[in-house]
Amino acid sequence: MSNNRVYQICNRCVMDTSDEDIVFDANGNCNHCTTALENLQKEQPSPELLQQQWNNILTNIKAKGQGKKYDCLMGISGGVDSCYAVYLAVQQGLRPLLMHLDNGWDSEIAVQNIKNLVDKLKLDYISYVIDWQEFKEIQLAFLKSSSVDLEYPTDIGILASTHQMAAKHKISYIVSGGNSNAEGILPLTWGYHPMRDMKYYKYIVGKYSKMKLKKVPHIGIYGEAYYKFIKNIRTMYILNYIDYDKDQARAFLKQEFGWKEYGGKHHESKITAFWQGYVMPTKFNMDYRRATLSSQICAGQVSRAAAITKLMEPPFDAGAMETLQQYVAKKFGISNSQMDEYLALPPKTYKDFPNSKGFVDFCFGLYRSIFKKKRI
Ligand SMILES: [Zn+2]
């Protein structure tokens, strides 16, 4: 990665040249907030139309599930979005099978949050425990490669395992807690996670480990097409059809299900807490708070001045991160000095490795243009 750009920060949001691909217009406004504001200004469907679409979806899911034990599969992480989505699905009369991908890094709080929800709603639940030996070697390969995408195997694993499990149980719908509020601004170099790019994945595993990708669930663009078009499995984003307020959802879950906080965004996993909270801002100069605050500025929830003040605070608690780094090294079976060596390697992104981004982009574009009208 060669990010030698002269420092510049956007005049409107707080994204800056820590995203090597950022583009500024003549007014000093960046491509991220320009796109985010354009999306916000697009005409939103009326609450009535959303309600109608949502009713149609519910009817379809229930009709397809008739006579079956479950009518949908839902992945659950223990975080607010996925827990609230499960509650909402059950409240709407759906009969979900819950699944959690256990990659070995769950925090105790996340596990307890899932258990409380499952017990109270009396749902069936599968904990898909990943083959740790293989997964550990794969994650270590990403660490040794010095790529920022240490979480790629987990994100691809969740996508693959939910589809596998839905097909196994002959379930036609995956109902997800993913939502457009949560997506917001995020440069692709900071997280290549949405890309189903097996060329990049297999290159890193092949070059930096002795392991072959076998038991750990994985899926590329062809695999996803197989589940979508041959198995007819559809994914529905339930929270996009309601007026979803995350703070209210959090308070509700606390009250009703004894749900507990686990710290930062997605820190229900220890490796995520370590990687996003510490390694990304220090080694890669990628501070997730910068992207989140920029999304909030666009939505009118935070002023730019307040965001800048917030960014002056350190992104992590140094003492807690030192303990966490030792925990991560121990779990990987490497010494603390070995971990320091890996973290000191020059930072890299997907661009530094063979990848098929162009092809995946082309397939996504094609899919969107064909199914644009049918997406709801
Ligand atoms: Zn901007």
Tag the structure with descriptive keywords.
Rossmann fold, two-stranded parallel ribbon, 16 helices, 5 strands, binds zinc ion
Compose a concise summary of this entry.
The chain is mainly alpha-helical and 376 residues long. It is built from 16 helices and five strands.
Task: Note the topology.
Elements: H1 31-41, H2 47-64, E1 72-75, H3 80-91, E2 96-102, H4 108-121, E3 124-129, H5 132-145, H6 152-168, E4 173-176, H7 180-183, H8 198-208, H9 221-230, E5 234-237, H10 246-257, H11 270-283, H12 288-298, H13 304-312, H14 318-332, H15 336-344, H16 357-371
Parallel strand pairs: 1-2, 2-3, 4-5
The chain binds zinc ion.
Zinc ion (ZN) binds at residues 10, 12-13, 15, 29-30, 32-33.
Structural commentary:
With 376 residues, this protein is mainly alpha-helical. It has a domain of 243 residues: HUPs (Rossmann fold, 3-Layer(aba) Sandwich), CATH 3.40.50.620. It has 16 helices and 5 strands. The chain has a 3-stranded parallel beta sheet, sandwiched between helices. Helix 3 packs across helix 10 and helix 11 crosses helix 14. It is globular and about 60 Å long. Zinc ion (ZN) binds next to helix 1. The site of zinc ion has 8 residues, from helix 1.
Q: What is the number of beta strands?
A: 5
CATH fold description of the domain at 45-266 and 354-374: Rossmann fold
Bound molecules: zinc ion
Which shape, going by the Cα principal axes? globular
Q: What is the CATH domain class of the domain at 45-266 and 354-374?
A: Alpha Beta
Strand content: 5-15%
Q: So, the CATH homologous superfamily of the domain at 45-266 and 354-374?
A: HUPs
The biggest sheet amounts to:
3 strands, parallel
Do you know the CATH architecture of the domain at 45-266 and 354-374?
3-Layer(aba) Sandwich
